[in-house]
Here is the input.
Amino acid sequence: MQKRFIAIDLGSNAVRLSVAALLSSGELVRESSYRVPLRLGEDVFSTGSISAATERKMASVFLAFRYLIQFFEPTAYRACATPAMREALNGDYITQEILKKTGIRLEIISGKEEAQFLFANRAERILHKGSSLLYVDVGGGSTEISLIVRGIPLRSESFRIGAVRYLKGKVEDKEWDRLREYAKGLPVAQDTEFIGSGGNIEKLCELASGNDAFKALGRKELKEVIDKLESLSYEERIRQYKLKPDRADVIVPAGKIYYNIMKWLDLKEIQVPKVGVSDGILRSLAESNHTAGEPRYI
Here is the structure.
């Protein structure tokens, strides 16, 4: 029987469930993906907690996910929550309620654990062998930066800067300073590949240069598409560029975060291989051999 794995990634803007099958060659093939715009960050970055109304919506979504898990019958699944749940004063309570109501074990992971899932994607297999890799993942609530040299994770850091947090005006100046100083202090070699992950950079790349599975987006082109989007109203972005409503407002803040990092590091282009946290969760499950404590089951 073919092995299947399921990853659930609960971010500040949306929650995703991804299903992948493991081939005999060891390759993971994505079968299905489901995304729901929960927007936990709007609650947490404004009030510090997840509201009762949002908690009810979460329970409904995770109940639907439970049925999907039962349908696909995965060998293992793992459900991870990132910035908004990390910061929510009632985050631990919510995870217990989700477990009680749906049977799904939801783990609140650290920023460094989140970055480790980017390592698991192994994007270097499709890039120049031997080059250094700089992963940047901009989510709704945080930005993860990870430097890999000769296949070895050298540095990894998480910052409280994300698209939803930016939109709500909740990014502190000192955090911008910390990100800028960290980026400028990275030992980035001349042949370093800059890799961006996340739905916003994928969409920016698509708008600027087409919809291929793997693209490089220049810093100049990134700035141009950001400027075009910023000149439009929220509804104009949806109509003209067919953006999802929960993407149309956060895409410009996310693009500015990527652009600033590129500028501080004097990087000319960003590679967009369309891999993210959920891909890393799936890969880590497939490679774990299902040792005790690793896979999470209903």
